[in-house]
Write a structure and sequence with these properties.
Strand content: 35-45%
Largest sheet: 18 strands, antiparallel, barrel
Mean pLDDT: 92
Helix content: 10-25%
Order of helices and strands: HEEEEEHEEHEEEEEHEEEHHEEEEE
Number of strands: 20
Distance between the termini: 30 Å
Low-confidence stretches: 1-26
Structural class: alpha+beta
Number of helices: 6
Length: 469
């Protein structure tokens, strides 16, 4: 019901923007957008998750989606900008116990800001502000203001290929100020906590927008130099609930080869980790209410390095390494999967025969714990975090965008410790200047006890059509 209301609200916003663009073309217009429909064949294999019903099911899905950006200029110095996206998925069969509803919609206000030009070089934004930073294709340590994604658990919009997260990218409520000078750009922003998050044991697909974007206090400052010849670094500082200092730069080594380097240093952990003591208690039949936490002591660092080569025909080839000190160690991974096995039926090996009513009560309790672990694992990824320590990403793409030509992109990321990986292949071609057809595959590979194989080796084959404006 909540998702349906969000989707309805998104539709009203887009229609209002269209009407405004038609009625006051001199002041308001729909700048760009797209709408599409795609069919998806979803395939999954066995996993460690065990419920009364299967955790994951093969399915066939019809997916409809829409996204649009509108802008109004009120005066010479004041303007409004908004972007909204909506998605509705219809699944042929009842999804698994850890997946979505059979028919479900999602509506997102990606951005809604009022912008005031205080001078020719000073701008102030107020509202739902979206800020992204970083030069890397995979994980950007410089991107300190990313929010939790509100996509469904088993269905996403595949029309953007490996850049599907852009559809769900959502800003936070706050205020931002940017000053542009000859030596560089200065930015200050504040995004206060508007609601306490007491729903972490649920998947973020069930959270409302405020929980996804404003459940912590964040105060941000950055400076990007513009006067240097080849490399112009960016320095960013985040304080509040999380304290992180980040730095990154990107520049040409040759005319066709670009080097990007980013790193950050945080006080304490930046995402919720499974607590070793709590899992030990759980496997000893002791009750644990909070199995995940963030240690606030110590220093944690991450680094990303990437090389991108562009040919004369605008084909890109890239390779990136990403590493983080707070990723799970081998022993922590083993502890994680030992606990998943235990709460998904392994506990029965240590229990004597029980009366049916008591056995059902115990099973229901551990199934609830299992759902919580699945939600926490899913939510870590939704926030743009990875669970391991070392990763390698390879990608290549073309960008012709010509009628009769096929553009393609292939990307893959591998966890260098456990060997699991994710792969995306996307093909697209314009039929006309504003109509595009596409097809592709998105899949994860790995054992049941690996990062990308945690929820079963899942593959999605898709094809769709999109109208752009």
């Amino acid at each position: 019901m909540i998702a349906a209301k969000r989707l309805h609200f998104t539709g009203i916003l887009l229609l209002a923007g269209t009407y405004s663009g038609a009625s006051w073309a001199a002041d308001c217009l729909i700048q760009r957008g797209y709408a599409g429909i795609e069919g998806i064949s979803s395939h999954t294999s066995d996993s460690l998750w065990q419920f009364d019903d299967p955790a994951f099911r093969n399915n066939t899905i019809a997916n409809l989606y829409l996204s649009s950006v509108g802008r109004c200029t009120l005066t010479d110095t004041l303007s409004l900008k908004a972007q909204a996206s909506g998605q509705y998925a219809l699944q042929a069969h009842q999804p698994g116990a850890l997946e979505d509803k059979r028919h479900q919609g999602v509506g997102i206000i990606n951005e809604a800001t009022a912008s005031w030009a205080a001078s020719e070089s000073w701008y102030i934004d107020l509202g739902k502000i979206r800020k992204t930073s970083g030069y890397l294709f995979s994980v950007a340590p410089l991107d300190l203001l990313r929010n939790v994604s509100g996509n469904m658990r088993s269905v996403r919009v595949f029309g953007l290929g490996d850049r599907w997260r852009n559809f769900y990218d959502e800003g936070a409520y706050g205020i931002s100020s940017s000053l542009y000078r000859n030596e560089g750009t200065y930015t200050l922003a504040a995004f206060p906590r508007l609601k306490r998050n007491d729903q972490r044991q649920e998947a973020a697909s069930e959270w409302d927008a405020v929980l996804r974007t404003n459940s912590t206090d964040r105060y941000y400052a950055s400076y990007t130099a513009t006067g240097l010849k080849a490399f112009n670094p960016t320095f960013s500082l985040l304080t509040g609930s999380q304290k992180t200092l980040a730095m990154g730069t990107s520049g040409n080594l040759t005319d066709k080869l670009i080097l990007s380097v980013e790193g950050s240093l945080s006080h304490g952990q930046t995402w919720r980790h499974l607590d070793t003591a709590a899992t030990r208690n759980t496997r000893q039949f002791r009750t644990e209410q909070e199995a995940y936490n963030i240690r606030s002591n110590g220093a944690q660092g991450d680094i990303g390095v990437g090389l991108r080569y562009t040919t004369d025909d605008q084909t890109e080839y890239g390779a990136e390494y990403y590493g983080q000190s707070q990723g799970y160690s081998r022993s922590e991974w083993q502890d994680n999967f030992d606990t998943i096995r235990f709460v998904n039926g392994g506990y029965t090996k240590s229990l004597p025969p029980l009366p049916p009513s008591l056995a059902t009560e115990i099973r229901n309790g551990y199934q609830q714990y299992s759902r919580m672990m699945a939600a926490e694992t899913d939510n870590t990824g939704r926030a743009g975090n990875l669970l391991g320590k070392h990763y390698l990403t390879l990608y290549t793409r073309t960008n012709k965008e010509q009628v009769g030509s096929i553009d393609w992109s292939v990307s893959g990321m591998a966890n260098l410790v456990d060997g699991s990986s994710v792969l995306n292949l996307h093909l697209s071609t314009p039929l006309k200047n504003n109509i595009e057809v596409y097809s592709g595959v998105a899949a994860s590979f790995g054992s049941k006890e690996s990062e990308f194989g945690t929820f079963g080796e899942k593959g999605n084959i898709y094809a769709g059509m999109r109208i752009n404006w």
